[in-house]
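Dear U.,

Please find below the material for section 3 of the report. The protein was modelled together with pyridoxal-5'-phosphate; I have listed the sequence and SMILES used, followed by the predicted complex structure.
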Amino acid sequence: MTASTQIIPHSRPTLGSQDAQALTAAARSGQLAQGARVAEFERGVAAYLGVHGGVAVSSGTVALELALLALGIGRGDQVILPSYVCAAPWLATVRVGAEPRLVDVEPQAYAIDPANAAKAISPRTRAIIVPHPFGLPAELSKLEALGVPLVEDCAQTLGATEGGRLVGSVGRATVCSFYATKLLCTGEGGMLLSSDPLILEKGRALRDYDEKPTLDAAAFNRKMTDLQAALGVSQLAQFRAFLERRAAIAAQYHDALGQTGLGLPAIPPGRTHIFYRYVIRLPRTTRSSRSLEALLTRLEHRGVQCRRPVFRPLHRYLGLTGYPNSEEAFETALSVPIYPSMTDEEVSRAAHTLCEELR
Ligand SMILES: Cc1ncc(COP(=O)(O)O)c(C=O)c1O
């Protein structure tokens, strides 16, 4: 197979020699389980966000669960979350025994719509989970004004700002995911972050199960290993370069796709985008779930693997109606490959193939 016929995967980790060296050093040190490297990674991510501390865990989903537990959320409580998101926020909510209240997203920005969140607030609402989708912040200032604790879900967005503030620095708690193809990767992994010492203390207490004064049924083994954290520390050191490369690829896509009639990623005033995903919208003529599926298949046959940015919105899983913007996004949004390890040749080929297929 020649370079030009090799498939361009939708996502790929960005791993280099300094990552390999960090992993080797951790392995050689003999300290594999949670130790000093986990603490270093926690300090690094917390410093990047400008919050007091972090609690590294085994995944982003676990970090969400831990955030809700640390906020004291459980049976009888309600948690507001968007319908257009992966299953993790819903799963975390039901695992702690709370009731998820789904709300629709902004039509172009895909983030939870503050006006819809406001309407969903009840006396039992204890938190709003705020994913920042695809690299673009949600409208944090308006959400903050609702007076409900925010759990910022930064699994897909780090380094972007809303109203001049970094995502992850605003909510009562913040969660990150370090899954293999996320912005920073540790293979699997996540982190709960906060400036509230009680949240951090509770998160730390519930991350481990052993050597406690009493048996706590909420505690569990949710730990990250030092091996994973070594990779995390190494990735964090490269984060600025990763973001620069993402911005350069997004600019190339903007130039190439600007004349196609496709909807390019919206960046509302007051927000910046770091392009974890490059999500385009199909023109009216090609709309409908079936034509999107057919397009995905054609693109894959031509060597460009694209995806729906959300596999299936939560309201669809749950058989609920009344989420028109999520529904529209599900029918028309397409995520194209973008990651720092993409070569220039891959970016040009992906853009060229998209132009041809969508002209
Ligand atoms: C918005 C969002 N939240 C949470 C998660 C869960 O992260 P993890 O896969 O590390 O459990 C993801 C992962 O895809 C995500 O995209």
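For the text of the report, you could mention the following: The longest helix spans residues 239-257.

Regards,
Y.
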